[in-house]
Design brief:
Mean pLDDT: 96
CATH class of the largest domain: Alpha Beta
Number of strands: 12
Low-confidence stretches: none
Shape: globular
Number of helices: 14
CATH architecture of the largest domain: 3-Layer(aba) Sandwich
CATH topology of the largest domain: Aspartate Aminotransferase, domain 2
Oligomer: single chain
Strand content: 5-15%
Radius of gyration: 21 Å
Structural class: alpha/beta
CATH superfamily of the largest domain: Type I PLP-dependent aspartate aminotransferase-like (Major domain)
Distance between the termini: 34 Å
Helix content: 40-55%
Bound molecules: pyridoxal-5'-phosphate
């Protein structure tokens, strides 16, 4: 089916196209109902109502209270607010943070900044499939630990972590637990109570909502120090006039995703498995990430003897948008920190490929993709100086 412009878009982990239903819900709040939610006249209250209603919609999806939801300017900002907010608020209790080696840079770079400020950070290892061992989380907790932050699902290889199990451990030890659930947003269970999380990050543009809108769940009673200072918006947790159209869109997109999740996940998983099976018939292709505990839309590989970037450019030439998985900019030869942590050799990691499916992708698109791969890969290998 592809996109309207004919492109086969296989990079839904990077971003997703905004749904037209979501855009329609946002539209009135740009110029018709443009009031500031803090203004007391009718026009302002109209915006405040929309904002309140967005909190309620998101709270329903997360099985939490509307007051436990903070809207931010994106997933990265929500991760920063969770991690710095807890670390600074809990400094007296302890200066030790536990995370993993495979987090998104929004988490890793924030933890590194805190290390520069004197905090101690434990970066837990993962197994060859990218899974964290909950027993290792438990063993790493000390009475100085003020935060555990572990992602729900990995953006490069799609591996899902045992979040509820880790949550249970953290709660028993009374350590606040944050999860970056950005990749899980439209796809996995987000019940904050059953996951036993204290903080959870989402980003609207990863589930067909607008870019620049993040959601942070903060469990009642969890103190976070605000990182953007100013007015008293979002119950004093994030200053600044609210992005009313944005949060309306985020809430609408989350609600649509949850209504359609069961059926759509089944469809995606079937396509994903078809794609993985097809890719693994190609010479020197290996699956990265967990064989079963992975996102229903995510297929990732290493292709020995192929330069990942050349493959992406060649796929682009035939109208297929894909990714190497890592956010490193072109020309960067550093291997992915995620694949390194999983024990993938640097030479192998150079041929990393991530294909993430979504609403526009059909079975036909998968077949076309596999056909193009079978044409492109031998050509690249014959050009490559890398040993296969
Ligand atoms: C995309 C992403 C982020 C960042 O979200 P933005 O809204 O783009 O800032 C954080 N964590 C993960 C796992 C992501 O995939």
């Amino acid at each position: 089916m592809a996109l309207a412009n004919g492109v086969i878009y296989l990079d839904h982990a990077a971003t997703t196209p905004m749904r037209t239903e979501v855009l329609a819900r946002m539209e009135p709040y740009f110029s018709e109902f443009f009031g500031n939610p803090s203004s007391i006249y009718t026009l302002g209250r109209k915006s405040l109502d929309a904002l309140d209603s967005a909190h309620e919609t998101v709270a329903r999806a997360l099985n939490c209270r509307p007051t436990e939801i903070v809207f931010t300017g994106g997933g990265s900002e929500a991760d920063n607010l969770a991690i710095k907010g807890i670390a600074y608020a809990q400094r007296k209790r302890g200066d030790h943070i536990i995370t993993t080696a495979i987090e998104h840079h929004a988490v890793l770079h924030t933890c590194q900044r805190l290390e520069q400020e004197g905090y101690r950070v434990t970066y837990l290892p993962v197994d060859v499939f990218g899974r964290v061992d909950p027993a290792q989380v438990e063993a790493a907790i000390t009475d100085q630990t003020s935060l555990v932050t572990i992602m729900y699902a990995n953006n490069e290889v799609g591996t899902i972590q045992p979040i509820a199990e880790i949550g249970r451990i953290c709660r028993a030890r009374r350590v606040p637990f944050h999860t970056d659930a950005v990749q899980a947003g439209g796809l996995l269970d987000l019940d904050a109570a059953s996951l036993q999380v204290d903080l959870l990050t989402l980003s609207a543009h990863k589930f067909y909502g607008p870019k620049g809108v993040g959601i942070l769940y903060v469990r009642q009673g969890t103190r976070v120090q605000p990182q953007v200072l100013g007015g008293s918006q979002e119950r004093n947790r994030r200053a600044g006039t609210e992005n009313v159209p944005g949060v309306v869109g985020a809430a609408a997109a989350l609600e649509l995703a949850r209504d359609e999740r069961e059926r759509e996940n089944e469809r995606l998983q079937e396509l994903r498995d078809q794609l993985i099976a097809g890719m693994l018939t190609l010479p020197d292709a290996q699956l990265t990430g967990h064989p079963t505990q992975r996102l229903p839309n995510s297929a990732s590989f290493t292709l020995a003897g192929v330069e990942g970037e050349s493959l992406l450019l060649n796929l682009d030439l035939v109208g297929i948008a894909a990714s190497s998985g890592s956010a490193c900019t072109s020309g960067d030869i550093e291997p992915s920190h995620v694949l390194s942590a999983m024990g993938v050799a640097a030479s192998q990691a150079r041929g990393a490929l991530r294909l993430t499916l979504g609403r526009s992708v059909s079975a036909d698109d998968i077949n076309v993709t596999l056909e193009r791969m079978a044409e492109i890969l031998p050509r690249l290998r014959s050009l490559s100086t890398q040993p296969a």
